[in-house]
Amino acid sequence: MAAEIITALIAASGAVILAGATYWFTKKRELDAELRKEKLEHYKDFIVCLSGTITGESTPEAQRAFAKACNRLNLVAPQAVVKALQEFQQEIKVSNANRSLERHDRLMSNLFFEMRRDLNVRPRDRDRSFTFGLWASGAPPEPSRLPGRGER
């Protein structure tokens, strides 16, 4: 009789442990998916704001939006992305007298590479030397955005 009780207790304990582990792993997956979704939104916002700072399309508002997007990345991005972002920021800052288009492109590409790696983009990028780029619209600026042409 005691053996039957012990067997029942072991079976019940195993069921409880299995249910608890299943719940824990399911919640972990849900939280990971939610964080990935949040990161993707922040990364999209960053790219949109970065696009607004391209030569010929930049405005003071776009510069401010870009700064805010950079700051928001610090909240959700892993260390590798934050480090790549900081290196890119050092290259593009106004006070950098030694700016280089080649270094800019390399650092921006590394930043995009790290973001894609963080998002676990499939298929995985294999070549760290791959160059990413952004396109400018080429459209002339709106008259209200021309220097000295603000609305009154």
Rg (CA only) = 25 Å
This entry's quaternary arrangement is single chain
The description of the largest β-sheet is: none
Order of helices and strands: HHHH
Q: Could you say which overall geometry the principal axes of the C-alpha atoms support? A: elongated
Which structural category fits the helices and strands? mainly alpha
Q: Termini, distance in Å? A: 93 Å
Unreliable spans are none
- β-strand amount: under 5%
Q: What value does the average pLDDT take?
A: 85
Total helices: the number is: 4
The percent range for helix content is 55-70%
Say how many strands there are: 0
Give your account of this protein's structure.
There is one protein chain. The protein is mainly α. It is built from four helices and no strands. The longest helix has 50 residues, at 2-51. It is elongated, with a radius of gyration of 25 Å. The mean pLDDT is 85.
Summarize the structure.
This protein is mainly alpha-helical. It has helices at residues 2-51, 60-76, 79-92, 101-118.
Descriptors for this entry?
152 residues, mainly alpha, elongated
Show the helix and strand layout:
Elements: H1 2-51, H2 60-76, H3 79-92, H4 101-118
Helix pairs in contact: 1-2, 3-4
